[in-house]
Amino acid sequence: MCAPSPASWTPDLTSVRAEDVMAALDAAGNSDRAEKSARFFKTGPGEYGEGDVFVGVSVPDQRTLARQFRGIGRDEVARLLASDVHEHRLTALVLAVWEFAHATGVERDAWVGMYLEQVRAGRVNNWDLVDSSAEQIVGEWLVGQSYSPLLELAADDDLWRRRVGIIGTFAFIRRGDAEPLLAVAPLVIEDRRDLIQKAYGWMLREAGKRCGTEVLLGYLDEHAAAMGRTALSYATEHLDAEVRAKYRARR
């Protein structure tokens, strides 16, 4: 018998639990995709995703399935995030992003609190998990108030908490505000880990596009020589070839 497609049934949200979401994801899994995902997300010994487990569900299918479970509540989302299975955690974050975006007042704050608890517990622990939630939850929550929580996260030596602090600045950058990123930058400029370099350079590039090229060039004039090669490459990717070469030559 074929496994049901992610869109083939509608749960009763008054009684649905994390285990129901897990079962639906597991039923939609594919062993070949799981094997490829495990390689792609570097789950081998000593790699950044060491020990992560995949069942083999595509991101579009996870998002389709997540729509059926909107409204299951924070406790069940937190239980999903406690799973060892990557797709369980990503689907939990898809749900958390949607719930946060549709919440108001204390409910909105509560979703952020749950998210930050999970970040500190090490459950938002791969780059796709961070990149699909940091801006959308903690970054959006901080717009219009102090961004000091992003500085606290970026100052943490933990790879994933630091990346949350960097990517969280994107919510401000989208609004033309590079100040939080420029405050985070001194905390991460010396970190040569690839996934920090890429996040840091990516946010600088976005700041140049959305906050003004002068913001990026001003930063590079002062700091290009101290940046890692990967971060500098990402930051200068969209500059003219001559300008790009000038900054990269400072390394």
Helix content class: 55-70%
Strand content: under 5%
First-to-last CA distance: 59 Å
Count of domains: 2
How is the main sheet built?
none
* Number of DSSP strand runs: 0
Low-confidence spans? 1-9
Shape: globular
CATH topology annotation of the largest domain: Leucine-rich Repeat Variant
Q: What order do the helices and strands follow?
A: HHHHHHHHHHHHHHHH
Per CATH, the architecture of the largest domain is Alpha Horseshoe
InterPro entries: ARM-type_fold (IPR016024), DNA_alkylation (IPR014825)
Pfam family, one: DNA_alkylation
Organism: Mycobacteroides franklinii
Protein name: DNA alkylation repair protein
Structural description of this entry:
The protein is globular. It folds into 2 domains: 15-125, Leucine-rich Repeat Variant, CATH 1.25.10; 134-250, Alpha Horseshoe (Leucine-rich Repeat Variant). The longest helix has 17 residues, at 194-210. Mean pLDDT is 94; it is low at 1-9. It is mostly helical and 251 residues long. Helices cover 62% and strands 0% of the residues. It contains 16 helices and no strands. Helix 1 packs across helix 4 (74-81) and helix 9 runs antiparallel to helix 10.
Write the SSE topology:
Elements: H1 18-27, H2 31-40, H3 59-68, H4 74-81, H5 86-101, H6 105-120, H7 127-131, H8 135-142, H9 148-154, H10 159-167, H11 170-173, H12 179-188, H13 194-210, H14 213-223, H15 229-235, H16 241-248
Helix pairs in contact: 1-4, 3-5, 4-5, 5-6, 9-10, 10-13, 13-14, 13-15
Keywords:
Leucine-rich Repeat Variant, 16 helices, globular, single chain, mainly alpha, about 250 residues, disordered N terminus, 2 domains
